[in-house]
Design brief:
The complex is a heterodimer of chains A (about 425) and B (about 575). With about 425 residues, chain A is mainly α. Chain A is about 70% helix and about 5% strand. Chain A contains 15 helices and 5 strands. In chain B, α13 (about 310-320) packs across α18 (about 480-495) and α17 crosses α18. Classes of the chains: A mainly alpha (about 425), B alpha+beta (about 575).
């Protein structure tokens, strides 16, 4: 093998995510025991993780040595945080989430490797764009009808050993469809549409715009939550903007979405609760806003350097392992930890956009931009929510929150992005 | 031009953030809302977009020439929106975790949906409080009076030895009722907030070890305290025994009292029992508060009692100090004294003599003589000497004290009857037992100096390093030393040949010099306060004692207070060579 085909940068960068869980898991396991004796058994999860990143690295080396070398280390670091936090937040209430998270991480890396090895031609995705759209929507609709109900929203398929959230899959399907659609209709951009002299969005744009709006509203209606609707619509607007370059489409879309949001606020008590918890949580700190107030306590306790892994009480926040995992990190790792994580996410998104700019063709570009904005927006919405910057909407923190569906899908996205970067012309 | 606009946008962004950090309207602080902050973040965000967007774009006037460049431009814009979002998140984190973290950690009083008052508070702080390794409290013999026990979850319970001293500690209930007594007065030291060496506490913070409290060492002698408690028995009253030279409290008991261990919360038991326990403590608290005998009231330092004849010590001191009388000055006493048509009876004469010296008046506690002295001293003299003896001031002490008083209505003493009544200890006089003991101490010393009393001898770190040591100090110079010496002699005469001495108050077998004065304050309905104050000097030791038996039916200083004091003094003196 020639030297230039070795992914040396990636190897060097992987040292940190490989060592992170060694330290983290040991701390998390040993602090409650109050002793420093440990044996190899305590590190089995770390070893599994270690094996997975090596396997992923080798797969990339052998199948596409020229693909981006920063994505895997960044994602692995985030996943390592997820692993540590799942062990940290394991309690009687949550059950054995750490070993389950290891299972999910393992499956996710397999999905990543599977996508990298199996998806030789990303253009295939474009060919089956309508299939994806129908599949994603159908699955979500099926979940809405046949799925099991959690917190008043039918979003889950209960498959016995785990619950699958088709909404996560829908995200990817929609991005693939939009990328393909916008790439196809790109030429129409050159001809501005005018009705009675007023510039108007050309029909090919108007149509998916209305469709996306409808889908988002449908989600809003079924889920009684702004979160996924916000995410889908945001990603759609970004892709539309990148394809058309017209800010005022985005503004129009925002106005339309805002109107729907106002209606949702008036109609759904659930949404009102979220807004109250954002604008005025303290008087409701024992009631509606209990969760966010507990999270704020967690952040405040953390201070600059945090209480130290294992030394805080993040379990006083309900559902801390999924939506509020960031608050737990804030408590135990402090501002240093949270800003570090934010920096990692920014780096990841920057890298995704970088891939987009280097991509070989329009579809690849739109796809990468779609995925990048999907990850970026989701991260922003959930972190902004738990820090009380914006109203909280239930969503997972990519790669860190406990949970199978989101992790699997995110690794599939990363796999596709690696494929795109491998297929790019430069570097 | 564009450059200037970008600089302007940047300045606006910085200004908005700084404004958001610094300015917070009062109403938002009260409700803990962040409207202003969020609005300034919004402004900052828009301005930051301005910085990133204005003037960027290589083809602003040539839209659509190069698709590659155009896409790059759009992606730049999209990513700049996301970057601005993450900058805002970082600022929000900085604020929540550092800038207003202290404010967030404070308890917030809210009203819940049912209209009940609730406190929104961080449960982690409760844990912190419950895991504080609170300092221990030791008596003068080095026995632990209050300690701690730690559960396997590192939660700490305040424990109490079966010691008579625990009535002085106050209750420890940081999460329910707060602390009282020594636990409150020395909370900073006991919790470890104060007094630890800064490196040690930094190290503990870094290692996440709970704060170590510092230990208190009291001046109270456990044997004398036990004796005083047994001697007092279950009778409302107080006994205070001082080292008159230093002001150290050797014994201090009161009744009714409460047991602080009944109010202490035990976090070392299983969580499931916590609620029941809290309920039980709350019930006990309510019972104590509703008890008409007021067991939570710290009688020795805060109980105010009409002093009766022991106040004659102050009247006598004033008369001698002003030179208005000499010990051998004679006074007329025919068994009663009439002033302004008000008749004061004097049942205390040992015989039917009608002339008595000042000294005899004190020895036999002649009301008629002291009524005349009260009038002779006048309102200003009475007030002046009461003030010199510390009336009207809270005694500086480790526990909360009440101020003794000479009159409760203004200008009460302007009336001559009032002067007469006050002269022999009735009137509107109110006195605390600790204060009475200090009066005896000041006279017994012979220099008229009232020492500053103290209960805590020293504070040490858990490792035994001394943080603070109490040095004996003076509180007040009551009368001139010569006067004090004369009063001392008269008190000795009282305890040898006066009523006190005739009833066994001299404690001849103890080998000590003793001066004492009884008092019986009439409260009506045949209820009396029985008082006795005394000092006893032997070797280089000088003890001062005050005993009060409160609202005793037919109570007499000679019968109810003095024998109790004698018991305690005898034992105290037996320990002196």
């Amino acid at each position: 093998m020639r030297k230039k085909n070795l992914r040396l940068t990636e190897i060097q960068l992987l040292i940190v995510p490989a060592l992170l869980p060694v330290v983290g898991m040991l701390m998390v396991i040993l602090v409650p025991r109050q002793q420093v004796n440990w044996d190899a058994k305590d590190l089995w999860m770390t070893f599994v993780f270690f094996g997975l990143i090596i396997a992923a690295h080798l797969t990339l080396t052998f199948t596409m040595p020229r693909s981006d070398q920063m994505i895997l280390p960044i994602v692995s670091a985030l996943t390592a945080f997820g692993l540590i936090m799942s062990q940290r937040l394991e309690s009687v209430r949550t059950g054995n989430i750490a070993s389950r998270q290891v299972l999910w991480i393992t499956l996710s890396y397999f999905v990543f490797i599977g996508v990298v090895v199996g998806l030789r031609n990303v253009m295939l995705l474009k060919r089956y764009k309508y299939t994806f759209l129908v599949f994603g929507l159908g699955l979500t609709a099926a979940a809405a009808v046949f799925g099991s109900e959690v917190n008043g929203a039918r979003l889950w398929f209960n498959l016995g050993f785990f619950s699958f959230q088709p909404g996560e899959l829908l995200k990817v399907c929609l991005v693939i469809f939009l990328a393909a659609y916008l790439d196809d209709k790109r030429d129409l951009l050159q001809a501005p549409f005018k009705i009675l002299g007023i510039p108007f969005p050309p029909l090919p744009y108007l149509l998916p715009m209305v469709a996306m709006w409808a889908i988002s509203m449908g989600l809003l209606f079924f889920q009684k939550d702004l979160g996924p609707a916000q995410l889908f619509f945001g990603v759609f607007l970004i892709m539309l903007y990148v394809a058309s370059g017209r800010v005022w489409y985005v503004l129009a879309g925002l106005v339309a979405f805002g109107g729907a949001a106002v209606v949702a606020y008036q109609e759904f008590a659930h949404v009102q609760t979220r807004i109250v918890a954002w604008t005025n949580p303290w008087p409701n700190g024992q009631g509606q806003a209990y969760q966010i107030v507990q999270a704020l306590f967690g952040f405040a306790q953390g201070g600059v350097f945090g209480k130290g892994l294992g030394y805080g009480s993040p379990n006083s926040i309900p559902e801390v392992q999924t939506d509020y995992v960031f608050a737990a990190i804030g408590e135990e790792m402090g501002l240093a930890g949270t800003l570090g994580l934010v920096a990692l996410y920014v780096l990841l998104i920057y890298r995704c956009f970088h891939i987009a700019l280097q991509a070989r063709n329009g579809f690849y570009q739109f796809l990468a931009i779609g995925f990048a904005s999907l990850l970026g927006l989701q991260t922003f919405i959930i972190i902004g929510g738990v820090t009380k910057l914006i109203p909280l909407t239930g969503m997972t923190l990519p790669f860190i929150s406990y949970g199978g569906s989101s992790l699997l899908i995110n690794f599939a996205i990363i796999g596709i992005l690696c494929r795109i970067s491998a297929d790019s012309e430069q570097t | 031009m564009k450059r200037a606009l970008r600089v302007f946008c940047g300045l606006v962004a910085v200004a908005a953030v700084v404004f958001g950090f610094l300015y917070r309207p009062q109403s938002e602080i009260q409700n803990r809302q962040d409207t202003t902050w969020l609005l300034s973040l919004l402004v900052a965000g828009i301005a930051l977009l301005g910085v990133m967007w204005v003037g960027r774009g290589p083809f602003t006037n040539k839209r659509g020439l190069d698709p590659e460049d155009r896409l790059r431009h759009y992606v730049q814009r999209v990513s700049s929106v996301l970057i601005v979002g993450f900058i805002l998140i970082s600022l929000q984190l900085l604020r929540q975790q550092v800038v207003i973290a202290n404010e967030i950690e404070k308890p917030f009083n809210a009203v819940n949906a049912q209209g009940e008052d609730v406190v929104v508070q961080d449960p982690r702080l409760i844990n912190e409080t419950l895991s504080n390794q609170r300092g221990r409290i030791f008596d003068a013999a080095g026995n632990e009076v209050a300690g701690i026990s730690t559960s396997k979850y590192k939660l700490v319970k305040r424990t109490y030895a079966d010691s008579p001293i625990k009535q002085l500690l106050g209750y420890f209930s940081p999460l329910q009722f707060g602390n009282s007594g020594l636990e409150a007065a020395y909370n900073d030291y006991l919790s470890g907030e104060h007094g630890a060496n800064p490196f040690g506490s930094l190290q503990r913070t870094l290692l996440n070890e709970p704060t170590q409290g510092n230990n208190l060492y009291l001046t109270v002698d456990p044997k004398l305290q036990q004796l005083a408690q047994d001697t007092l028995g279950p009778i409302p009253g107080s006994i205070v025994l001082l080292d008159a030279k230093s002001g150290a409290v050797l014994a201090m008991v009161g009744y009714p009292r409460y047991d602080p261990s009944e109010l202490v919360f035990d976090p070392t038991v299983d969580d499931s029992l916590w609620n029941d326990q809290i309920q039980a403590i709350q019930q006990r608290w309510n019972a104590l508060n509703n008890d008409p005998s007021q067991p939570l009231f710290m009688r020795p330092t805060q109980g105010l009692y009409v002093p009766g004849s022991i106040f004659k010590t102050v009247t006598l001191s004033g008369m001698l100090d002003t030179g208005k009388t000499k010990p051998d000055t004679t006074w007329k006493d025919t068994g009663s004294f009439v002033i302004d048509a008000y008749k004061i009876n004097d049942p205390n004469r040992p015989n039917q003599n009608t002339t008595w010296t000042t000294q005899q008046g004190y020895m036999f506690s002649l009301n008629a003589v002291f009524a005349q002295m009260g009038v002779a001293l006048g309102p200003d003299g009475l007030r002046d000497y009461a003030n010199k003896f510390g009336f009207g001031q809270e005694i500086p002490f480790d526990l909360k004290t009440s101020a003794s008083q000479i009159e409760s209505t203004k200008d009460y003493l302007a009336n001559r009857v009032a002067q007469a009544e006050t002269g022999f200890g009735q009137g509107q006089l109110q006195l605390t037992p600790l204060h009475a003991a200090l009066m005896a101490a000041a006279m017994g010393r012979g220099d008229g100096i009232m020492p500053k009393p103290y209960l805590v001898q020293s504070i040490k770190t858990p490792a035994g390093q001394l943080i603070k040591e109490s040095e004996p100090s003076n509180w007040l110079q009551t009368v001139r030393p010569e006067t004090a010496k004369t009063v001392r002699d008269i008190m000795v005469a009282s305890a040898t040949d006066g009523w006190v001495g005739l009833n066994g108050g001299g404690l001849k077998s103890s080998g000590a010099v003793i001066g004492g004065k009884t008092g019986t304050a009439e409260l009506g309905n045949n209820l009396n306060n029985a008082w006795y104050i005394a000092w006893a000097s032997k070797g280089d030791k000088l003890f001062a004692i005050a005993v009060v038996i409160d609202h005793r039916a037919g109570g007499e200083g000679l019968q109810d207070a003095m024998p109790r004091a004698n018991k305690v003094l005898t034992t105290a003196l037996a320990g002196v060579k």
